[in-house]
Amino acid sequence: MSRGTAGGEWAAITNGGDPVPIETRKISFSEAELIDAIEGFAKHTKRGMPPGKTVACGINGVGNLSVSLTVQNLADGVSATTRFDHATVAAALIRYCIGKKIPLARAAEKSVQADGAGVALTLRIPEN
How far apart are CA 2 and CA 19, in angstroms? Predict the structure, then answer.
């Protein structure tokens, strides 16, 4: 694969041997949006989350991204941390986008990575 001079990514495949541009889209999520997405997904999938208020969000961007949410029980003040793996975070962000009516190309290759204080969902749409 070679780089185009305009800063875009080019695939030296198909289209009669001519390079074909590939569309890449990045959707960035703040920490608050990430928490909303994961909490909503956990509730939707009936994944057990401790009762209470989320007081911390940790993003581990090394290797396959994972996210840890720390929830404090309001009744007794005890905190518990739940870790969400890369696939779960990706599914939560996709569901969040669908709920917010953010269009996502079905055929796009989707990936998630740390992005500043939040995360980004990157969609790579190969030319057909």
Answer: 9
Burial letters 83-117, b for 16+ CB under 10 A, else e: ebebebbbbbbbbbbeeeeeeeeeebebebeebee
Q: What is the pLDDT of residues 106-122, one digit of tens each?
A: 989 999 999 988 999 99
Q: What is the pLDDT of residues 67-120, one digit of tens each?
A: 999 999 999 999 999 999 999 999 999 999 999 999 999 989 999 999 988 999
Which positions ≥6 away from 89 have C-beta within 8 Å? 34, 38, 65, 66, 67, 112, 119
Sheet of 79-84, strands arranged across? 53-60, 66-72, 79-84
Give first-to-last CA distance, the chain, whole Å: 17
Quick one: which H or E segment has residue 10?
strand 9-11
Sign of torsion over alpha carbons 7, 13, 19, 22: negative
68 with 49: CB under 8 angstroms?
no
Residue carrying structure tokens 């961007």: 61
